[in-house]
Design goal:
Elements: E1 2-5, H1 11-24, H2 36-43, E2 50-56, E3 59-68, E4 77-84, H3 93-107, E5 112-119, H4 123-131, E6 135-146, E7 150-160
Helix pairs in contact: 1-2
Length: 161
């Protein structure tokens, strides 16, 4: 698997992944009716941020976006988001994207990385982030409406470099 910067030719595959993840309504607090235009505006970062894709045999398996978590006095803390195609999950794509984002943030001079809204029932993601040095620093109770579990918490996770 290769992780590389997003190219315009990747958009159709990235949109398919974003659309699928958002419509599942299990891991991202995005509107499931999100349009392609809205998805593009939300997912494709401009410099100094970065959007990347994970590719294997010419197929986009996952994507990530990364940049500053906040502007101004909070701009020393980065953030990132990851999405993996349903049929590529469990194959290390998310792990590779997470390591890539952490390395990118460190190389860019950020002091830490913060995730603002990790769905607490997304155990695969929570475990992945903890294995990569993140800790849960707080949970907003019942802040995410899961389609089968009802309202579950959203974790704020943090990793200082």
């Amino acid at each position: 698997m290769q992780i590389r910067p997003f190219a315009e030719a990747d958009w159709a595959a990235v949109w398919a992944i974003v659309r699928g993840v958002v419509r599942e309504q299990e891991t991202f607090p995005y509107d499931p009716a999100m349009t392609e235009t809205e998805a593009r505006q939300t997912w494709i970062e401009t410099a100094p941020g970065l959007t990347v894709v994970a590719v294997e045999d010419g197929r986009v398996l996952g994507t990530a976006k990364m940049g500053a978590n906040r502007s101004g006095p909070g701009s020393h803390v980065s953030t990132a988001s990851f999405m993996v195609a349903a049929d590529a999950r469990g194959r290390g794509v998310g792990s590779g994207l997470c390591r890539y984002a952490l390395d990118w943030a460190k190389d860019a001079g950020y002091a830490a990385m913060q995730f603002n809204a990790v769905v607490e029932s997304n155990h695969a993601a929570v475990n992945l982030y903890e294995r990569n040095g993140f800790t849960v620093v707080g949970t907003v109770p019942r802040a995410f409406a899961h389609p089968t579990l009802g309202r579950v918490g959203l974790h704020v996770m943090y990793h200082e470099f």
